[in-house]
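Let's study a protein:

===
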Amino acid sequence: MQERLNTPLAVIDYGCGSVLIVFLLTLAGWVPGVIAALIILNRGKL
């Protein structure tokens, strides 16, 4: 449950580029940041 609440922060282990993209999208709005983070987190699972 905690991972879902802090989804944009969950990409810290995925490299600087991913963190930067999610950070910028989160600044634009929480929803785009969460969507990008979920895509990055689930990229290997799909």
